[in-house]
Amino acid sequence: MKKMKSAVLFKPKDLRIVEKDIPPIGPDEVLLRVKAVGVCGSDVHYYRDGRIGNIVVKGPQVLGHEFSGEVVEVGNAVRGIEPGMRVAVEPGVPCGKCEACLTGKYNICPEVKFCGTPPVDGAYQEFYAAKAALVYPFSKEISFEEGAMIEPLAVALHSVNVAPVKNGDWVAVLGSGPIGLMLIQAARSAGATRIIATDLLDYLVKAAEEFGADFSLNAAKEDPVAAIMEFTGGRGVDVAFEAAGVPETTQQAIEIVRPGGIVGLVGICREDTIPLDLHPAIRKELTLQAVRRFRHVYPRAVALLERGQVNVAGLITHRLPLEEITSAFEMVENYADGVLKAVILP
Fold first, then answer.
1. Residues 6+ positions from 246 with CB-CB distance below 8 Å
2. pLDDT averaged over the chain?
3. What angle do CA 292, 294, 298 make, to 5 degrees?
4. Please, are residues 120 and 260 in contact by the beta-carbon 8 Å criterion?
């Protein structure tokens, strides 16, 4: 059987390039030559800690779920997808039978097999077998690197759906990493008229304005709650998205939302439990809306990208070969060299 190179995590901080068999495909699958894989914060969680909550890396694991590729082979039951097509991949394969799936919320299927989430191998390798129903072609005007950004864009689009942003809303995005920068664009696309962004790093604060925030601030240098309340004339924002994955920004989101407003919980905390003062949330009757990945948004993400209505190319600051994946993970973990999004090119 033909071989391919894969980046395999054996234990925290132990990532090696190994040879594996190129996967065979079933009748409803396609084989992709993986062209670009975005380094996600969740990949770094697994690399650094070997776990996210109760999902633990227990054996050799290939990470990676933000990816695009070229179709090289199709199963005999596949229609509409052909070799040579450039595609992005929706990385979760739901069971299709549970209550969540049958009500259209397949993103919260308890039995979902999600690419790069233990024990399912992901896309940091040269080839990948994907369900044909979950690949989305995009035009040749879109680079493979941009195609890999469709997945994080989908997270942002789903976020503004379930923590709904309406025309005229004021929105805050706490955490201006790649997902935060996508959220700024998704909120604007949904109709937000004022967008406020925060971060602890000056270069990310600057990036937030470059990607469309009306007002951004460094929360390490000034009180973000006081500054945002002043900027909104004491009213607060309609919707706040926590995109940093730390306890402080979760509490800040609760503090800055107007009475009756919404907090979208998008970030992934390293801690299993975090302390929160919920009295403001109760007094203001806030909606605390958890966000889990995405559903039914990939076609919209592709359309927005092809029409030039979102900027994902500007997020990509670093491109590295598969052999340098450890350097990419360390760079992203440490916010080194002005990194926004690092992309691996297998």
1. 175, 267, 269, 270
2. 97
3. 170
4. no
